[in-house]
Specification:
Number of strands: 5
Number of helices: 2
CATH class: Alpha Beta
Structural class: alpha/beta
Helix content: 25-40%
Strand content: 35-45%
Length: 68
């Protein structure tokens, strides 16, 4: 049984953008070669993308973006 507080990993970029409409903010965490985008909504939604894809994805989000 999965705990309710566990983050949900999203693999579809369009679904992630749709979820961003209900999010309080999107946190951007940069790692070596990868960027992790975290939507803070009722649940935590996470997507991992390459740095180039992250720039275009953050431009399309419908919530405030916070870079960490």
């Amino acid at each position: 049984m999965e705990a309710e507080y566990m983050p949900v990993e999203v693999f579809d970029k369009d679904q992630f953008i749709t979820l961003s409409a209900k999010a309080k903010e999107c946190r951007v965490v940069k790692r070596a070669g990868m960027v992790k985008l975290k939507l803070r909504a009722k649940k935590l939604f996470v997507i991992k993308v390459k740095e180039e894809e992250a720039k275009e994805l953050t431009a399309r989000l419908k919530c405030p973006v916070v870079e960490l």
